[in-house]
Specification:
By secondary structure, the chain is α/β, with parallel strands linked by helices. Helices cover 61% and strands 9% of the residues. The chain folds into two domains: 344 residues, Up-down Bundle (ABC transporter transmembrane region fold), CATH 1.20.1560; 168 residues, 3-Layer(aba) Sandwich (Rossmann fold). The strands form three sheets. Strands 6-9-10-3-11-12 form a six-stranded mixed beta sheet. Strand 11 and strand 12 form a beta hairpin.
Length: 647
């Protein structure tokens, strides 16, 4: 995975996922210009699907549209009416100056105009409030529905989906992309409607005042477009460099943070700082260039706008002198000409944002279209709860059978060709073999994390495909070498093993796992809150908690993957006794790397390249003098040599 990928898509790390840290496509620099816009592969189809989420709110969207139009229309009428007040004031004053009999300023008329203006602006603000209120509800409900679909989809996706993608990529789609859609629906959609209505309304009002002045205003537009295009094209290059440097910097900081002890141990602090300085300098160079170039857009547009302002003022003055229009109309027109460029700029900005949003929506829909797990059997058997009468439910005993199982992560690269295993209830089965032999794959197939390419797996004669996945997995208790504990109290982490577990059940399980003593030595005891990485307790203590959790689950079948590899020798002896008690009467699969720990197993399966090449008891396999015997002797010889060297 590249630095850019590693830095992108992780929430809160300023990566390149859309919308993160405000650097999302279409939102960089002033007016959103210059930033490279992420485009959808199929804009129309993605837009159609996104609109599908809005269909239940058609009535409310119509209200949003109407209120947006009315709010804008009432706001647009303001300058024209204000111009009438200016005309009345100007004509009255000029009449007095010129000594026209009966000339006076009609302050009552002006007051009436100001009152009408106040009413118009209040009505405009009221419609704007209604528009934002209704749209907020529509946007959040739409995104809530989309988030719900994404979450449910993630629950239905097979394990191979997660194995083939980085966590950052999945989080980027489920969080950043959905947030980008939410932001656009909430703000940009109503702003887009307002900008279009404002543009049309302003042009209509300018035409009613003076077609000539309207022509002068429109003539200045090409200058703005040429300037924006030239600057945006130049700044895009710098923004791309900025994105690349930002992703590289995020990746470097993440690596140095997570691997801080290793960096310290090998004395790489100076090299790490030097690399950071280099990347940071590149980010600075591309960043200031991108911001400087894109920041030129507004001043240049201001200059072009002022040119138009001067032309309109001069031409308007001449028209007033020739009594073609009133001075109040000139004032209103100048106000409209100022408003004229704004909706165009906003529309261009929103168009970029919408492009980015549709691209985000496409990424979310790609996730929603991923191939799901094979559906449950229509007449899937339910698993009987402990102590309940069997009836029609499946009551497990623990007999497991692999019959001509074939499997490969890729169809063109089979890993398991023809596996046959017969395990009786209550047996302890050890699985040994070199790295990549297929030991963990066998467990994944047993728990139906992956679907078989051929053959079948049965538990007590029942094909595992005839059971619901949730019920099937409830039969197993797992203690893995890589511990998994969530952010919460120690009590909650142990109780995770069984729903409705009481305080006594939790303490009993902790004692059986020899974890009760160290838990009570902690300041908060069982109420101690584990942090996100559970780094406030040792690795061995984490393993004890996962063992306690498995003991509490009281499963029919146990899966142990070097469960005692992270604890000291004395604790290992305690754990082994607890495990022996736990495994009594239960079928247990033990993935072993230290062969000395599985001598007492009822059956040892020796795997290599996806096949079971030897099976039997410890003594039988040693007597055969085959692959297992070589593995065992190499480990034993290595330990003996290490002891001699130590002496």
């Amino acid at each position: 995975m590249s630095d850019q990928q590693r830095g992108a898509g992780k929430p809160g790390q300023g990566g390149m996922g859309p919308g993160s840290f405000g650097f999302g496509p279409g939102r960089g620099g002033p007016a959103g210009m210059g930033m490279p816009v992420q485009k959808a592969k199929n804009f129309k189809e993605t837009l159609r699907r996104l609109i599908g989420y809005l269909k239940p709110y058609r009535g409310k969207l119509l209200v949003v549209f109407l209120t947006a139009v009315l709010s804008t229309v009432f706001s647009i009428l303001g300058p024209k009416i204000m111009g009438e007040a200016t005309t009345e004031l100007f004509e009255g004053l000029m009449g007095k100056i010129n000594g026209v009999p009966g000339s006076a300023v009609d302050y009552g008329y002006i007051a009436d105009i100001l009152l009408v203006l106040a009413v118009l602006y209040v009505i405009s603000a009221l419609f704007g409030y209604i528009q934002q209120y209704v749209m907020a509800g529509v946007a959040q409900r739409t995104v809530a529905s989309l988030r719900k679909d994404v979450n449910e989809k993630l629950e239905r996706l097979p394990l191979k989906f997660y194995d083939s993608r980085t966590h950052g990529e999945i989080l980027s789609r489920a969080v950043n992309d959905v947030d980008n859609i939410s932001s656009t629906l909430q703000q940009s959609l109503t702003q887009f409607i307002t900008s279009i209505v404002t543009l049309v309304g302003v042009v209509v009002m300018m035409l009613t005042i003076s077609p000539l002045l309207t022509l002068i205003t429109i003539v200045t537009l090409p200058l703005s477009f040429i300037a924006i295009k030239a600057i945006a094209g130049k700044s895009q290059t710098y923004f791309k460099d900025q994105q690349a440097s930002l992703g590289e910097l995020n990746g470097h900081v993440e690596e140095m943070y997570t691997g801080h002890p290793v960096v310290k141990a090998f004395g790489y602090e100076r090299k790490s700082v030097a690399k950071f300085d280099g990347v940071n300098e590149r980010l600075y160079q591309s960043g200031w260039r991108a911001q400087f170039v894109s920041g030129m857009i507004m001043p240049i547009m201001g200059v072009i706008g002022n040119i138009g302002y001067v032309l309109v003022s001069v031409a308007g003055g001449l028209l007033v002198l020739h009594q073609r229009i009133t001075i109040g109309d000139v004032q209103a027109f100048i106000s409209y000409s100022r408003q004229f460029a704004q909706p165009i700029t906003q529309t261009a900005q929103i168009a970029n944002i919408i492009q980015s949003t549709i691209a985000s929506a496409e990424r979310v829909f790609e996730l929603l279209d991923e191939t799901e797990e094979v559906p449950e059997a229509a007449n899937a058997l339910a698993v009987a709860s402990p102590g309940a009468s069997a009836g029609t439910a499946f009551a497990p005993k623990g007999n497991v059978r692999f019959e001509h199982v074939k499997f490969g992560y890729n169809e063109d690269a089979p890993l398991i060709a023809d596996m046959n295993i017969d395990v009786s209830s209550g047996q302890t089965i050890a699985i040994v073999g070199p790295t990549g032999a297929g030991k963990t794959t066998l467990i994944n197939l047993l728990m139906r994390f992956y679907e078989l390419n051929g053959g079948r797996i049965t538990i007590d004669g029942t094909d595992i495909t005839e059971l619901k996945r949730g019920d099937l997995r409830s039969l197993f208790g797992m203690v893995l070498q890589d511990t998994w504990l969530f952010n919460g109290t120690i009590r909650d982490n142990i109780a995770y093993g069984r729903a409705g577990a009481t305080e006594e059940d939790v303490v009993r399980a902790a004692r059986a796992a020899y974890a009760d003593h160290f838990i009570r030595t902690l300041p908060e005891g069982y109420d101690t809150v584990l942090n996100e990485e559970a780094s406030n307790i040792s690795q061995g203590q984490k393993q004890l908690l996962t063992i306690a959790r498995a003991i509490l689950a009281d499963p029919a079948i146990l899966i142990l993957d070097e469960a005692t590899s992270s604890v000291d020798t004395r604790t290992e002896a305690h754990i082994q006794r607890a495990m022996n008690t736990l495994m009594e009467g239960r079928t247990s699969f033990v993935i072993a790397h230290r062969l000395s720990t599985i001598r007492e197993a009822d059956l040892i399966l020796v795997m290599n390249q996806g096949a079971v090449i030897e099976q039997g008891s410890h003594e039988e396999l040693l007597a055969q003098g085959g692959f297992y015997a070589d593995l065992y002797q190499s480990q034993f010889s290595g330990r003996r040599q290490a002891t001699i060297d130590a002496v």
